Amino acid sequence: MRTMKLGFPKFGIVGAAVAAALALSAAPADAAWEPKRPIQIVVGFAPGGGTDQTARLIASAAQEFFPVPLVVVNRPGASGTLAAEIVANADPDGHTLLVAGGSESTSVPNHMKTNYKLSQFRGVVRVNREHMVIVTKQGSGLDSIEALVKKAKANPGSLSYGSSGPAGILHSAFLVFEKEAGIQMKHVPYKGGAPALAAVLGGHIDMTIITPGDAQAQVAAGKVHALATTSDRADQIPDVPSLTDLGYKVNLENMKGLVAPAETPDEVVAYLHERFKQAMESDTFKTLAGKAKIQAAYLSGEDFEAAMKDMSDAVAAAIGDGQKQ
Protein backbone atom coordinates (compact mmCIF):
# COMPACT_ATOMS: atom_id res chain seq x y z
CA MET A 1 0.00 0.00 0.00
CA ARG A 2 1.26 3.42 -0.87
CA THR A 3 1.45 5.98 1.91
CA MET A 4 0.25 9.46 0.96
CA LYS A 5 2.26 12.43 2.11
CA LEU A 6 0.22 15.41 3.18
CA GLY A 7 1.71 18.57 1.73
CA PHE A 8 1.05 22.12 2.77
CA PRO A 9 2.22 24.24 -0.11
CA LYS A 10 3.08 27.88 0.48
CA PHE A 11 1.97 28.12 4.12
CA GLY A 12 3.14 24.84 5.74
CA ILE A 13 1.89 23.18 8.93
CA VAL A 14 1.22 26.36 10.88
CA GLY A 15 -0.81 27.77 8.02
CA ALA A 16 -2.81 24.56 7.83
CA ALA A 17 -3.63 24.76 11.53
CA VAL A 18 -4.81 28.34 11.13
CA ALA A 19 -6.91 27.34 8.12
CA ALA A 20 -8.49 24.51 10.10
CA ALA A 21 -9.35 26.86 12.95
CA LEU A 22 -10.87 29.35 10.53
CA ALA A 23 -12.91 26.58 8.95
CA LEU A 24 -14.34 25.64 12.33
CA SER A 25 -15.16 29.25 13.22
CA ALA A 26 -16.77 29.80 9.84
CA ALA A 27 -19.48 27.21 10.51
CA PRO A 28 -21.39 28.50 13.53
CA ALA A 29 -24.72 27.62 11.93
CA ASP A 30 -23.89 23.93 12.27
CA ALA A 31 -23.33 24.36 16.00
CA ALA A 32 -26.25 26.75 16.65
CA TRP A 33 -29.01 25.57 18.98
CA GLU A 34 -32.09 23.93 17.52
CA PRO A 35 -34.86 22.03 19.30
CA LYS A 36 -34.34 18.28 19.29
CA ARG A 37 -37.83 17.18 20.30
CA PRO A 38 -41.37 18.66 20.43
CA ILE A 39 -41.71 21.97 22.25
CA GLN A 40 -44.43 21.95 24.90
CA ILE A 41 -46.45 25.14 25.37
CA VAL A 42 -48.02 24.67 28.79
CA VAL A 43 -51.37 26.33 29.61
CA GLY A 44 -52.56 26.64 33.19
CA PHE A 45 -56.23 26.58 32.31
CA ALA A 46 -58.73 24.30 30.62
CA PRO A 47 -59.14 24.17 26.82
CA GLY A 48 -61.35 26.85 25.30
CA GLY A 49 -60.48 29.79 27.53
CA GLY A 50 -58.55 32.93 26.62
CA THR A 51 -55.14 31.58 27.67
CA ASP A 52 -55.71 28.37 25.72
CA GLN A 53 -56.80 30.35 22.66
CA THR A 54 -53.58 32.36 22.75
CA ALA A 55 -51.49 29.19 23.03
CA ARG A 56 -53.19 27.51 20.07
CA LEU A 57 -53.07 30.70 18.00
CA ILE A 58 -49.32 31.20 18.36
CA ALA A 59 -48.59 27.48 18.03
CA SER A 60 -50.55 27.23 14.78
CA ALA A 61 -48.98 30.34 13.29
CA ALA A 62 -45.43 29.46 14.36
CA GLN A 63 -45.37 25.78 13.39
CA GLU A 64 -44.01 26.46 9.90
CA PHE A 65 -40.95 28.17 11.42
CA PHE A 66 -39.96 25.24 13.65
CA PRO A 67 -38.40 21.88 12.73
CA VAL A 68 -40.26 20.10 15.56
CA PRO A 69 -43.93 20.00 16.61
CA LEU A 70 -45.31 22.71 18.90
CA VAL A 71 -47.63 20.95 21.33
CA VAL A 72 -50.15 22.76 23.56
CA VAL A 73 -50.45 21.00 26.92
CA ASN A 74 -53.24 21.97 29.32
CA ARG A 75 -52.40 21.68 33.03
CA PRO A 76 -55.34 23.43 34.71
CA GLY A 77 -55.50 23.99 38.44
CA ALA A 78 -54.97 26.52 41.23
CA SER A 79 -55.59 29.61 39.06
CA GLY A 80 -52.81 28.69 36.67
CA THR A 81 -50.16 28.26 39.36
CA LEU A 82 -49.87 24.50 38.86
CA ALA A 83 -48.68 24.97 35.29
CA ALA A 84 -46.42 27.86 36.30
CA GLU A 85 -44.73 25.69 38.93
CA ILE A 86 -44.17 22.91 36.39
CA VAL A 87 -42.45 25.25 33.92
CA ALA A 88 -40.48 27.14 36.58
CA ASN A 89 -38.86 23.84 37.57
CA ALA A 90 -38.50 22.38 34.07
CA ASP A 91 -35.13 21.84 32.40
CA PRO A 92 -34.06 25.19 30.90
CA ASP A 93 -33.43 23.64 27.49
CA GLY A 94 -35.99 25.48 25.37
CA HIS A 95 -38.42 22.58 25.10
CA THR A 96 -40.90 23.70 27.80
CA LEU A 97 -42.64 27.08 27.70
CA LEU A 98 -45.51 28.63 29.65
CA VAL A 99 -48.27 30.95 28.50
CA ALA A 100 -47.87 33.67 31.15
CA GLY A 101 -48.63 37.31 31.86
CA GLY A 102 -51.99 36.97 33.61
CA SER A 103 -53.08 36.09 37.12
CA GLU A 104 -50.56 33.27 37.58
CA SER A 105 -47.68 35.69 36.92
CA THR A 106 -48.65 39.14 38.13
CA SER A 107 -51.39 38.63 40.70
CA VAL A 108 -51.75 35.32 42.55
CA PRO A 109 -48.15 35.10 43.85
CA ASN A 110 -48.67 38.43 45.63
CA HIS A 111 -51.77 37.21 47.44
CA MET A 112 -50.57 33.82 48.60
CA LYS A 113 -47.54 31.58 48.87
CA THR A 114 -46.67 29.80 45.64
CA ASN A 115 -43.90 27.33 44.84
CA TYR A 116 -42.37 29.68 42.28
CA LYS A 117 -41.52 33.36 41.80
CA LEU A 118 -41.90 35.63 38.79
CA SER A 119 -38.10 35.88 38.74
CA GLN A 120 -37.95 32.16 37.87
CA PHE A 121 -39.16 32.92 34.35
CA ARG A 122 -37.50 34.49 31.36
CA GLY A 123 -39.59 36.28 28.76
CA VAL A 124 -39.59 35.00 25.19
CA VAL A 125 -42.28 37.14 23.55
CA ARG A 126 -45.57 38.85 24.42
CA VAL A 127 -48.33 37.79 22.07
CA ASN A 128 -51.44 39.74 23.03
CA ARG A 129 -53.08 41.95 25.61
CA GLU A 130 -56.65 42.34 26.76
CA HIS A 131 -57.93 45.62 28.19
CA MET A 132 -60.13 45.50 31.27
CA VAL A 133 -63.15 47.79 31.67
CA ILE A 134 -64.93 48.77 34.89
CA VAL A 135 -68.70 48.66 34.38
CA THR A 136 -71.76 49.47 36.50
CA LYS A 137 -75.45 48.91 35.95
CA GLN A 138 -77.44 51.47 33.99
CA GLY A 139 -79.65 53.46 36.35
CA SER A 140 -77.45 52.80 39.39
CA GLY A 141 -76.33 56.40 39.62
CA LEU A 142 -72.73 55.26 39.26
CA ASP A 143 -72.30 56.63 35.76
CA SER A 144 -68.72 57.87 36.12
CA ILE A 145 -65.56 57.20 38.09
CA GLU A 146 -66.09 60.57 39.77
CA ALA A 147 -69.53 59.49 41.02
CA LEU A 148 -68.17 56.13 42.12
CA VAL A 149 -65.26 57.60 44.10
CA LYS A 150 -67.50 60.26 45.68
CA LYS A 151 -69.96 57.65 46.95
CA ALA A 152 -67.20 55.29 48.11
CA LYS A 153 -65.56 58.07 50.15
CA ALA A 154 -68.84 59.12 51.68
CA ASN A 155 -69.72 55.53 52.63
CA PRO A 156 -66.55 53.41 53.02
CA GLY A 157 -67.20 49.72 52.34
CA SER A 158 -70.72 50.29 51.03
CA LEU A 159 -69.91 49.68 47.36
CA SER A 160 -69.14 46.16 46.17
CA TYR A 161 -67.30 44.76 43.19
CA GLY A 162 -67.26 41.29 41.70
CA SER A 163 -64.32 39.41 40.21
CA SER A 164 -63.65 36.08 38.55
CA GLY A 165 -62.11 34.79 41.78
CA PRO A 166 -59.94 35.80 44.73
CA ALA A 167 -56.32 36.73 43.95
CA GLY A 168 -56.99 36.96 40.21
CA ILE A 169 -56.06 39.89 37.99
CA LEU A 170 -59.57 41.42 38.20
CA HIS A 171 -59.48 41.35 42.00
CA SER A 172 -56.01 42.90 41.96
CA ALA A 173 -57.03 45.64 39.52
CA PHE A 174 -59.73 46.80 41.94
CA LEU A 175 -57.25 46.69 44.84
CA VAL A 176 -54.79 48.90 42.96
CA PHE A 177 -57.62 51.30 42.04
CA GLU A 178 -58.82 51.44 45.67
CA LYS A 179 -55.32 52.31 46.85
CA GLU A 180 -54.90 55.03 44.21
CA ALA A 181 -58.33 56.55 44.85
CA GLY A 182 -58.11 56.29 48.64
CA ILE A 183 -61.36 54.33 48.92
CA GLN A 184 -62.57 51.06 50.44
CA MET A 185 -64.97 48.69 48.71
CA LYS A 186 -66.21 45.16 49.32
CA HIS A 187 -64.90 42.28 47.18
CA VAL A 188 -67.36 39.56 46.15
CA PRO A 189 -65.63 36.69 44.29
CA TYR A 190 -67.41 34.59 41.66
CA LYS A 191 -66.39 31.51 39.67
CA GLY A 192 -65.89 33.52 36.51
CA GLY A 193 -66.41 36.83 34.77
CA ALA A 194 -69.85 35.92 33.40
CA PRO A 195 -71.43 35.27 36.84
CA ALA A 196 -69.92 38.52 38.12
CA LEU A 197 -71.48 40.48 35.25
CA ALA A 198 -74.82 38.75 35.85
CA ALA A 199 -74.63 39.86 39.47
CA VAL A 200 -74.11 43.48 38.38
CA LEU A 201 -77.06 43.31 35.98
CA GLY A 202 -79.18 41.74 38.72
CA GLY A 203 -78.33 44.51 41.16
CA HIS A 204 -76.52 42.21 43.60
CA ILE A 205 -73.18 44.03 43.37
CA ASP A 206 -72.25 47.48 42.12
CA MET A 207 -69.53 46.85 39.56
CA THR A 208 -67.20 44.40 37.88
CA ILE A 209 -64.57 44.28 35.12
CA ILE A 210 -65.23 42.90 31.63
CA THR A 211 -63.51 42.96 28.24
CA PRO A 212 -63.90 45.88 25.80
CA GLY A 213 -65.91 43.72 23.39
CA ASP A 214 -68.34 42.71 26.10
CA ALA A 215 -68.52 46.29 27.38
CA GLN A 216 -69.31 47.58 23.91
CA ALA A 217 -72.15 45.08 23.52
CA GLN A 218 -73.59 45.73 26.99
CA VAL A 219 -73.46 49.51 26.53
CA ALA A 220 -75.19 49.22 23.14
CA ALA A 221 -77.89 47.12 24.80
CA GLY A 222 -78.41 49.83 27.41
CA LYS A 223 -77.43 47.56 30.29
CA VAL A 224 -74.20 49.03 31.69
CA HIS A 225 -72.12 52.16 32.02
CA ALA A 226 -68.51 51.67 30.88
CA LEU A 227 -66.64 53.88 33.33
CA ALA A 228 -62.94 53.40 32.58
CA THR A 229 -60.26 51.01 31.42
CA THR A 230 -57.56 49.90 33.84
CA SER A 231 -54.65 50.53 31.46
CA ASP A 232 -54.77 52.77 28.38
CA ARG A 233 -57.77 53.40 26.15
CA ALA A 234 -59.10 50.44 24.17
CA ASP A 235 -59.54 50.70 20.40
CA GLN A 236 -62.97 49.05 20.57
CA ILE A 237 -64.31 51.72 22.94
CA PRO A 238 -62.15 54.81 22.30
CA ASP A 239 -64.56 57.20 24.08
CA VAL A 240 -64.14 55.39 27.40
CA PRO A 241 -61.32 57.05 29.38
CA SER A 242 -58.57 55.17 31.18
CA LEU A 243 -58.11 55.48 34.93
CA THR A 244 -54.79 57.17 34.14
CA ASP A 245 -56.65 59.76 32.03
CA LEU A 246 -58.76 60.45 35.13
CA GLY A 247 -55.76 60.94 37.40
CA TYR A 248 -55.33 57.46 38.90
CA LYS A 249 -52.02 55.70 38.28
CA VAL A 250 -53.37 52.29 37.41
CA ASN A 251 -51.91 50.19 34.62
CA LEU A 252 -53.10 46.61 34.78
CA GLU A 253 -54.28 44.44 31.94
CA ASN A 254 -54.51 40.77 31.08
CA MET A 255 -51.40 39.98 29.02
CA LYS A 256 -50.48 36.70 27.37
CA GLY A 257 -47.10 35.64 26.09
CA LEU A 258 -44.47 32.93 26.29
CA VAL A 259 -41.87 32.51 29.01
CA ALA A 260 -39.16 29.92 29.64
CA PRO A 261 -37.37 28.85 32.83
CA ALA A 262 -35.05 31.64 34.00
CA GLU A 263 -31.80 29.74 33.35
CA THR A 264 -32.57 29.14 29.67
CA PRO A 265 -29.44 30.17 27.68
CA ASP A 266 -29.36 33.35 25.58
CA GLU A 267 -28.99 31.51 22.27
CA VAL A 268 -32.03 29.36 23.01
CA VAL A 269 -34.21 32.34 23.91
CA ALA A 270 -32.99 34.21 20.82
CA TYR A 271 -33.89 31.25 18.59
CA LEU A 272 -37.38 30.96 20.08
CA HIS A 273 -38.03 34.71 20.05
CA GLU A 274 -37.00 35.12 16.41
CA ARG A 275 -39.36 32.41 15.21
CA PHE A 276 -42.35 33.39 17.32
CA LYS A 277 -41.87 37.00 16.19
CA GLN A 278 -41.85 35.80 12.56
CA ALA A 279 -45.07 33.97 13.31
CA MET A 280 -46.72 37.11 14.68
CA GLU A 281 -45.79 38.97 11.51
CA SER A 282 -47.29 36.26 9.29
CA ASP A 283 -50.61 36.40 7.45
CA THR A 284 -51.62 33.18 9.20
CA PHE A 285 -51.33 34.79 12.62
CA LYS A 286 -53.17 37.95 11.55
CA THR A 287 -56.01 35.91 10.05
CA LEU A 288 -56.39 33.64 13.07
CA ALA A 289 -56.13 36.52 15.55
CA GLY A 290 -58.79 38.44 13.66
CA LYS A 291 -61.19 35.50 13.70
CA ALA A 292 -60.62 34.97 17.44
CA LYS A 293 -60.83 38.73 18.16
CA ILE A 294 -57.45 38.61 19.87
CA GLN A 295 -55.54 41.90 20.00
CA ALA A 296 -51.93 41.24 19.02
CA ALA A 297 -49.47 43.16 21.16
CA TYR A 298 -45.89 42.15 20.47
CA LEU A 299 -43.17 42.83 23.03
CA SER A 300 -39.66 41.45 23.13
CA GLY A 301 -38.87 38.98 25.89
CA GLU A 302 -37.11 41.61 28.00
CA ASP A 303 -39.92 44.15 27.64
CA PHE A 304 -42.51 41.48 28.43
CA GLU A 305 -40.60 40.62 31.62
CA ALA A 306 -40.49 44.30 32.59
CA ALA A 307 -44.23 44.74 31.97
CA MET A 308 -45.06 41.73 34.15
CA LYS A 309 -42.78 42.97 36.93
CA ASP A 310 -44.33 46.45 36.88
CA MET A 311 -47.80 44.97 37.25
CA SER A 312 -46.70 42.56 39.97
CA ASP A 313 -45.03 45.37 41.92
CA ALA A 314 -48.21 47.48 41.72
CA VAL A 315 -50.31 44.59 43.04
CA ALA A 316 -47.82 43.90 45.85
CA ALA A 317 -47.90 47.56 46.86
CA ALA A 318 -51.71 47.60 46.89
CA ILE A 319 -51.89 44.51 49.07
CA GLY A 320 -49.26 45.92 51.41
CA ASP A 321 -48.04 42.65 52.86
CA GLY A 322 -47.89 40.81 49.54
CA GLN A 323 -44.87 38.86 48.41
CA LYS A 324 -42.95 40.97 45.89
CA GLN A 325 -41.39 38.82 43.20
Which strand order spans the largest sheet, edge to edge or round the barrel? Answer: 2-1-3-10-4-11
- CATH H level, superfamily name of the largest domain: Bordetella uptake gene, domain 1
- As for the number of domains, it is 2
- The CATH class designation of the largest domain is Alpha Beta
The geometry reads as: globular
Q: Count the strands?
A: 11
Q: Ends: how far apart? A: 71 Å
Give the helix tally. 13
The CATH architecture assignment of the largest domain turns out to be 3-Layer(aba) Sandwich
Low-confidence stretches: 1-30, 321-325
- Helix/strand-derived class? alpha/beta
What Rg is obtained from the alpha carbons, in whole angstroms? Answer: 25 Å
Strand content: 15-25%
Largest sheet: 6 strands, mixed
Q: What fold name goes in the CATH topology slot of the largest domain? A: D-Maltodextrin-Binding Protein, domain 2
Considering DSSP H and I runs of 4 or more, what fraction of the residues is helical?
A: 40-55%
The arrangement of helices and strands along the chain is HHEHEHEHHEEHEHEHEHEEHHEH
Mean pLDDT comes to 91
Provide an overview of this structure:
This protein is α/β, with parallel strands linked by helices. The protein folds into two domains: 39-130 and 253-319, D-Maltodextrin-Binding Protein, domain 2, CATH 3.40.190; 133-229, 3-Layer(aba) Sandwich (D-Maltodextrin-Binding Protein, domain 2), CATH 3.40.190.10. Helix content is 41%, strand content 19%. It has 13 helices and eleven strands. The strands form three sheets. It has a six-stranded mixed β-sheet, sandwiched between helices. Strand 1 (39-43), helix 3 (50-62) and strand 2 form a beta-alpha-beta unit. It is globular. It starts with 11 loop residues before the first helix and ends in a 6-residue tail after the last helix.
